[in-house]
Every structure is written in C-alpha cells, then in structure tokens.
Amino acid sequence: MENQKIEVTAVKPKYLLKVSIVLYRNRRDQIINVIQSLRKTEFTYQLELIDNSLEKSFFSWVQLQPHEIYIFTGQNLGFGKAHNISIRKSIEEQIPYHLILNPDVYFDEQKILERIYHYMESHPDVGLLTPKVLYPDGSTQYLCKRLPRPYDLFVRRFGSRQAKEKNNFYFEMRDKDYDKIMEVPSLSGCFMYFRTEVLKKIQGFDERFFMYMEDVDISRRASQVAKNIHFPEVKIYHEHGQGSYKSKKLLWYHIRSVLQYFWKWSSFS
Fold this sequence. Notes:
This protein is an alpha/beta fold. It has one domain (17-240): Spore Coat Polysaccharide Biosynthesis Protein SpsA, Chain A, CATH 3.90.550.
C-alpha cells in the first residue's frame, strides 16, 4: 500500500478580532456608547464584556447581539486578570487580533477597526497599536509616554504646577508630533489593538497588577517582541476619569502598582 499524503487544512477563525471590555459599576450611558460605536462597523469582530461588578444587572437594560457575550465574574478580579479571560480565548481560537477597550471610550468613524486591521496586516512588525485619543471636547490627550522613572510619577502627583508642566512635556512625548505615526514605549490601556501572536508570546497581562501600571508593563513587554505604534490616522474619544485623583482607595491601588512596577523592572533610580 502506497503512502498517502495527508493534507491538513488550516481552520480559519470565525472572527478577525476579539474585543474585551472590563466593567465595574460603569455608567449605563458609557456602556451603551461604546457598544454602539462598535456596532457601527461592518468588520467581523466578537465582543466579550467581562463584568467585575458584585451584582448582575446588565441584561435588564442592554439587548446583546449574537456576537456579543456577557461574562459575569461576581468578583472584582482587577483589570488585567479580567481581560486575560478573553485574551486566552483569542489565543486558543487563533483570532488574529485582540482589542483591549475601556468602557469610557467611544468613536464616530465607521471604519476605524477596518483601517487599523489593514495597517497591521501591511506592517507585520507592529504588535500593538493605539489611535489618536481625544477628550470629548476634541482636544488631544497626551497618552503616548516614555517609560516612567520614579521621578516622573512623583512630580505628576505631588509636584508644583510648573514642575508638572516641565516634566510632562518630556514624559508625555509632547516634543513629538501627535499627528504623525510614531513608535512609542508606553501606550494607553484605554484602546490597545494587539496582534494576538504578541499576546501569546508575552502571556497577556501580568495579573500581579490589580489596577494601574498594567498598561505600562504590557506595553514594555510587547515592545520587546514587536513595535508599539501611535496611529493618528484614526481617532477615538476617551472620558479619562483619573479616579485615583478623586478616591483615596484608588490612590492606594495606584501607589501599590507603581511600587510593584519599579520593583519588577528594578528601576528605583
């Protein structure tokens, strides 16, 4: 009997993109806005809403479509750990791209996901991308950042107005042109469009960061295997609540995460 060649046909993923949004007692209008923003696209994506709230009330006021999945955790797992639930599925299902999206983000452009997808497809060296981020009034949010030094974060929190402005000019890369595509060390966690291969290599978020600094850490690790790109050819709007400036509890989470970050990367200098 002659040896027969067995042809293995790769199974194409059902979706090109999985989107994960972590919820925790968010305003209804925010959640509706971000879901409606995604629904404007004709792109093939799957949305997973991971709810870290302690009470399940989501379905009473949102009608989900077949490609939108609600996951109730019943406990506050933290930002990165909750997103990892969805990231692991993207890796297992071999979905090419994964979008980390905040519930306080919305966008008007119909083809934003398509334009990012085509850019990533034509630039295989790019592993993580963030569009231009605007405040609701249309002004620029300076969320492209150099890797933080302890001094940078201390001055941003406790420095004088003059010291903050001087430091932010450097730390927030305001010396660069935010209207041009550029490679950036650290991108904002409000909208992180990942190549899933990169997430697989770096094993998603470091779950030791409960809240804050997880986007800096994952950006830094992603930049070790691919490029991090600021892509201003599309734009999004972000409310950017800065909760740690309003809550002592969130301030404690922020301080703890900062200490964890610098301890991990051995950069107390």
